[in-house]
């Protein structure tokens, strides 16, 4: 899979995980591969692992940048998109920050409410500008 396809595949799988909070991202991804829904992909598997390994930092960052919004009040789609994008921004230095932001906005336009992409863009612009995100790169 190309990275864009893998990102969308892991998005779909992690979105499903919003309804199975006791399941790890890695186990959800492995189940999707074993069921034949997706082929094994190193990038997607890495995202799942990093989301599991750094969930608290990712959640803290999302809450920090989503000023005025509580995590549980965001749509499951927006939460999933933010997990993936913040994970890339903080823990995947080979992916340019703007690529993570743009891909997240595209996922939002495709899967979320028509106004959500502006919110996603704002949150991720704040994450990108934050020195913590830059220091992680």
Describe what you observe in this structure:
There is one protein chain. The protein is an all-alpha fold. It has a single domain (3-136), classed as N-utilizing Substance Protein B Homolog, Chain A (Orthogonal Bundle), CATH 1.10.940.10. The protein is built from eight helices and no strands. The chain starts with a helix and ends with a helix. 34% of the residues are buried. The model has no long low-confidence stretch (mean pLDDT 92).
Highlighted features:
mainly alpha; 137 residues; N-utilizing Substance Protein B Homolog, Chain A; globular
Which secondary structure elements does this structure contain, and how are they paired or packed?
Blueprint: H1 3-17, H2 25-34, H3 42-53, H4 55-65, H5 76-91, H6 97-111, H7 116-129, H8 131-136
Helix pairs in contact: 1-2, 1-3, 1-5, 2-3, 4-5, 5-6, 5-7, 6-7
């Amino acid at each position: 899979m190309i990275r864009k396809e893998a990102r969308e595949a892991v998005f779909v799988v992690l979105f499903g995980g919003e309804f199975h909070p006791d399941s790890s991202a890695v186990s959800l991804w492995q189940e999707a591969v074993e069921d034949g829904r997706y082929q094994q992909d190193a990038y997607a598997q890495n995202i799942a692992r990093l989301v599991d390994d750094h969930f608290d930092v990712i959640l803290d960052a999302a809450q920090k940048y989503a000023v005025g919004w509580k995590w549980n009040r965001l749509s499951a789609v927006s939460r999933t998109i933010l997990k993936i994008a913040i994970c890339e921004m903080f823990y995947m230095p080979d992916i340019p920050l703007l690529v993570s932001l743009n891909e997240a906005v595209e996922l939002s336009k495709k899967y979320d409410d028509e106004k959500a992409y502006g919110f996603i863009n704002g949150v991720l612009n704040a994450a990108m500008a934050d020195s913590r995100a830059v220091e992680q790169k």
